[in-house]
Design goal:
Distance between the termini: 89 Å
Radius of gyration: 26 Å
Strand order of the largest sheet: 1-2-7
Largest sheet: 3 strands, mixed
Bound molecules: zinc ion
Helix content: 25-40%
Strand content: 5-15%
Low-confidence stretches: 17-30, 349-385
Number of strands: 10
């Protein structure tokens, strides 16, 4: 009897120790993550390139504020976790995202994800998309927009109005909706500009199929609203609408107001209040406690695409230069330079790339040809698109304009994702664009070296 009692007590002590230990562990992890707004104090040796890129953005956009999150996470561990099969996907059969963008193992096994339309991406792709230095440009920075409510900022109802004007919410009650959005956002610690932008992102200006859904029971018609497309998933449009309707019905969102309130709560509770308060963090869960497992979407492009959509909405209403705050993640042991963009064909030997992102010349029936002379071309039946080594800006000449472009690219002043340009810039064909290529263009212009195909 005594013995069992003693064992029981020991067990209880053990359990208490275990609980305390795990609490402690969480605390240690959480404490190692630190938000800081002192950009000038970022250690260039530990986080190479970041400070310069942020300061350049600050210089060009005086109202913007920046913070960094010291994640305390080792870069290689992060990439290993995020590159697990199926964690990051990309739409199948996209020409621009093929080759080295894709996970070789899953490709070889013909493995598809998420209903068959998605494929697993490579470690290179994860690295490229996660490395903040590849997105610290005006074009891509909105994925870092702070989505929580900044108590030191004032949110202007007119900006929200300009975002939602002429939209499906502009039905005579827009001012009322805006008040609801602002009040609930403040209560729930969400950036109301983000909420307004997200409504347009999800529904478009006119309102999509889940904005208002009809439900009939015993001849009684009820309309339900699911403006944020919550639970709107499925393989077909009818499945998507039916799932979205189930959600809205369950929550009794039978007025727009109720849906707005519930939607703000959902967005706040799911991600923002637990620290995943940028689109980047919604996608790449490097936030303490959940680490890697709590992601809003599997699409590796999610943060970039959503950020770009929001930027375009803000551009459309001249609202990009307000006092926005951006939060940039910092990792330990990052590579010295930004991770490179994967090539869209598999690079094993000396093969060159096809041209992509070339909207003016891309037709259907593209066949990729790899020529051994380093000059790749795409057959469009009727026309041929090719790049010329050294002609970085694709204007048919090699001159100071190309030299400048390569320089800007290397200094990270300019982001170039056009494969045709990238191919043209790799003069010595070593699969890297660096000072060696810059030197060859310089020499070419000086006449001491000739760039040939
Ligand atoms: Zn895979």
């Amino acid at each position: 009897m005594k013995k069992t009692k003693a064992i029981a007590i020991l067990l209880i002590i053990n359990i208490i120790c275990l609980i305390m230990f795990s609490l402690n562990l969480n605390k240690v992890f959480a404490a190692s993550q630190k938000i800081d707004n002192q950009i000038s104090k970022i250690d260039e040796k530990k986080y190479p390139g970041i400070k310069n890129m942020i300061e350049r953005l600050q210089k060009d956009h005086k109202n913007w504020k920046f913070k960094v999150l010291y994640t305390g996470l080792d870069w290689n561990t992060v990439i290993k976790e995020e590159a697990k099969h199926g964690r990051n996907l990309i739409g199948a059969n996209q020409k621009n995202y093929s080759g080295n963008w894709l996970c070789k193992e899953c490709e070889d096994n013909k493995k598809r994800y998420s209903g068959g339309n998605w494929v697993c991406v490579s470690t290179d792709a994860v690295e490229y998309m996660m490395d903040p230095r590849n997105s610290l440009y005006y074009e891509d920075v909105f994925q870092f927009l702070e989505l929580s409510y900044d108590k030191s900022s004032t949110y202007d109802a007119n900006i929200i109005k300009s975002i939602l004007k002429n939209s499906f919410l502009d039905d005579g009650n827009l001012d009322k909706y805006i008040t609801t959005i602002i009040n609930r956002s403040k209560e729930k610690n969400v950036n109301p500009y983000y909420i307004a932008g997200k409504i347009i992102q999800e529904q478009g200006i006119k309102g999509g199929s889940t904005f208002k859904m009809k439900y009939i029971e015993n001849d009684k018609i009820t309309y339900y609203y699911n403006i944020f497309n919550i639970n709107a998933t499925g393989g077909t449009t009818s499945a998507i609408v039916s799932n979205a309707l189930d959600w809205a019905k369950d929550k009794e969102w039978d007025t727009i107001e109720k849906c707005l309130i519930g939607g703000v709560d959902f967005i706040a509770n799911g991600y923002i209040t637990i620290g995943q308060d940028t689109m980047y963090f919604e996608k790449f869960d490097v936030i303490a406690d959940t680490y890697y497992t709590h992601q809003y979407a599997q699409d590796v492009m999610y943060a970039q695409n959503q950020g770009e959509k929001l930027r375009r909405i803000l551009e459309g209403i001249n609202a990009t230069e307000h006092a926005y705050t951006f939060v940039i993640p910092l990792y330990e042991n990052m590579p010295r330079t930004a991770c490179e963009r994967p090539t869209s064909i598999r690079m094993n030997s000396n093969s060159a790339n096809d041209s992509d992102n070339n909207s003016t010349n891309n037709n259907t029936n593209n066949n990729t040809e790899n020529n051994t002379n380093g000059n790749a071309s795409v057959n469009n039946n009727s026309m041929e698109v090719s790049y010329n080594l050294g002609d970085a800006n694709n204007d048919g000449k090699i001159n100071s304009g190309d030299l400048l472009l390569v320089k800007q690219y290397l200094l990270k002043v300019k982001k170039i994702t056009d494969e045709k340009s990238l191919n043209a810039m790799d003069i010595n064909k070593d699969k890297k664009i660096n000072s060696g290529d810059l030197l060859l263009i310089k020499k070419h212009l000086l006449g001491t070296y000739k760039i040939t195909k």
